């Protein structure tokens, strides 16, 4: 029987806050604050935090229109350049959510503070280098204190991680399993997302080095395998689209969930693709990503590209209302083949804010498996977060089953 624990954080009963949201005045930060204002339980003790108190107080005024109780919402100081402010914040709450990126530049201080304080931590980082470096530097300490450190708690990578988790549940147990995921969306990105992507593109050598150091440090699986190889571009008969390999953090997260959970079987493999209907569009997308990657290697070009998108900006409400995403999964094992889908609205902002908010509410209030250290959403929250997201409007469905 799996042991469960409610709430989070060693000594959390004495802490004044259940949840603190850092970076609340940013684009996704404000969307997350609005979601918490509308959906957090009435007895949830939460606060907003950031560098600029005046901006935080203006945000609090805007949140009153969502929930009048926000008139007394606490405003806290948290500055990545001031480790003392981060330690004080982590020591005063049970769970921290942060939207302050690029995380490789601004994120480590808060991870370190939470690991030391036994405070659960969730971010929106899709930066593989950051996740690997945080594992190397802070996983052991978080295990000692009981802190759960979760990266990629937005569109990167929850729909993919929980989508595979949901798909695996439809397949037989104790046998090799294969799952492929196909992502489609019409959404736009914000200045913060673009800055994070360009930062990652420009740090290829550092990313490879961090990944290698992590592989050498992580315990090896005994008697099981969990892999996420990069697939080749191909025509997918299952989805009727061109499948282009997506070199994002998502397959890495899925593989780590598979390594942590025996339900994924003795030999698990996941491949991750962008699904594009038309070949010219697929070719254009590959060319655009290749060009962005190449320009990111030149510091002046990278700085110019990043200046074209203002941090804290993003698509307006009307544009987000027209945005959608769909991730289709094809799972196979033991002669059974299942087709599942996870879908929702605007992935990068509205749904990401919803996912981050529901993740920290889940960490704070739900009965969960007893985990600690750097963990994935599937391993740390599994069914509890899946149920929350379905109740919040994301769709997880089984489209077809073939024996």
Total E-strand runs: 17
| Low-pLDDT residue spans | 280-296
Secondary-structure class: alpha/beta
Termini separation (Å)? Answer: 30 Å
Discrete helix count: 16
Q: What global shape is seen?
A: globular
Could you tell me the strand content as a percent range? Answer: 15-25%
Global Rg: 20 Å
User: In percent, how helical is the residue content?
Assistant: 40-55%
Describe the structure.
With 403 residues, this protein is α/β, with parallel strands linked by helices. The protein contains 16 helices and 17 strands. It has helices spanning 27-39, 53-63, 83-91, 103-106, 108-117, 128-145, 158-168, 191-201, 204-217, 250-260, 279-296, 299-307, 317-321, 350-365, 377-380, 382-391; strands at 4-6, 17-22, 46-50, 75-77, 93-98, 120-123, 148-150, 177-185, 225-227, 234-236, 241-245, 267-276, 325-333, 336-344, 367-369, 373-374, 395-402. Strands 8, 9, 10, 11, 12, 13, 14 and 17 form an eight-stranded mixed sheet that branches. A seven-stranded parallel sheet has the order 4-3-2-5-6-7-16, sandwiched between helices. Strand 6 (120-123), helix 6 (128-145) and strand 7 (148-150) form a beta-alpha-beta unit. The longest helix has 18 residues, at 128-145. The chain is globular, with a radius of gyration of 20 Å. The chain starts with a strand and ends with a strand. The model is unreliable at 280-296 (pLDDT under 50).
